[in-house]
Design brief:
The chain is mainly α and 269 residues long. The protein has one domain: Mitochondrial carrier domain (Mitochondrial carrier fold). 67% of the residues lie in helices and 1% in strands. It has helices spanning 2-29, 46-56, 66-89, 101-131, 148-164, 168-195, 204-234, 249-259, and strands at 94-95, 98-99. Strands 1-2 form a two-stranded antiparallel ribbon. It is globular, with a radius of gyration of 19 Å. The chain starts with a helix and ends in a 10-residue tail after the last helix.
Length: 269
């Protein structure tokens, strides 16, 4: 049941956060491997990006990649949250009756890895679709897919089953870091809020407060991995399915730091 509830809740949130994912993807691809001042800036900030995409691509452009996004959220978060709930209910994250930061971090990371691997194919397609745009504001490589099914078929025909998992080398550290940070800080924050007696134990405000604290930490920890993941998934590939810009996670990380200084693109979701 935790698998279904976790996936369903994530899908509900995705309906509202998908436009932010579109904006985030465009901003993370803008100026790829270019130093500041050497490329045209189509999206000056989050608000300008919303306006530009809505004006040029239409309001539907802000919901690009929604279908694979829903599939990804259901699979990844269903598996991730469901797996963590099983580990938690078995008592494996507690030491002497208290939440263990180390155990929750490890459990969260493991649950995240499983979810990331299973959801990688649809995340690949989601990234491709969300980066697609009218040529006047396009950033990153443009795949020109017609939809999720068309994209999955095209990738499979050209590169086989392994091609569907291209980019997962970045998805695993991305989600494992995010999951470990989120689940460990959420459990610890919830315990802290209860200990400080800020809200009555069992109140929904306890979970809300813990979630807000956790989300801030997750964004800070996950941003570099998110940028690398987006670029690895979206990069053009040759006939053998090999990336034409990056050889892998560490190569993308080092090239981005070297050629773009240390400019950080913070994700909104």
């Amino acid at each position: 049941m935790d698998f279904i509830l976790g996936g369903g809740a994530a899908c509900g949130a995705c309906l509202f956060t998908n436009p932010l994912e579109v904006v985030k993807t465009r901003m993370q691809l803008q100026g790829e491997l270019r130093s500041r001042g050497t490329y045209q800036v189509y999206y000056r900030n989050v608000f300008h990006a919303f306006y530009t995409i809505g004006k040029v691509d239409g309001l539907t452009g802000l919901q690009k990649g929604l279908v694979p996004g829903l599939f990804y959220q259901f699979v990844m978060n269903g598996v991730r949250l469901g797996s963590y709930a099983i580990i938690e209910s078995a008592g494996h994250i507690h030491t002497d009756g208290r939440v263990s930061a180390l155990k929750t971090t490890v459990a969260g990371a493991l649950a995240g890895v499983v979810g990331a691997v299973m959801g990688s194919p649809v995340y690949l397609v989601k990234t491709h679709l969300q980066s697609q745009s009218t040529s006047s504001i396009a950033v990153g490589h443009q795949y020109k897919h017609e939809g999720m099914i068309h994209a999955l078929k095209a990738i499979y025909r050209q590169h086989g089953v392994l091609g569907l998992w291209r980019g997962s080398s970045a998805a695993v550290p991305r989600v494992s870091v995010g999951s470990a940070t989120q689940l460990s800080t959420f459990s610890s924050s919830k315990e802290l809020v209860v200990d400080l007696q800020v809200f009555p134990e069992g109140s929904w405000l306890v979970a809300l407060s813990a979630g807000m604290i956790s989300s801030v930490v997750v964004v800070l920890a996950m941003t570099p991995f998110d940028v690398v993941s987006t670029r690895l998934y979206n990069q053009p590939v040759d006939l053998q399915g090999k990336g034409m810009l990056y050889n892998g996670f560490t190569d993308c990380f080092s090239k981005t730091l070297k050629k773009e200084e240390t400019h950080i693109r913070i994700p909104e979701t």
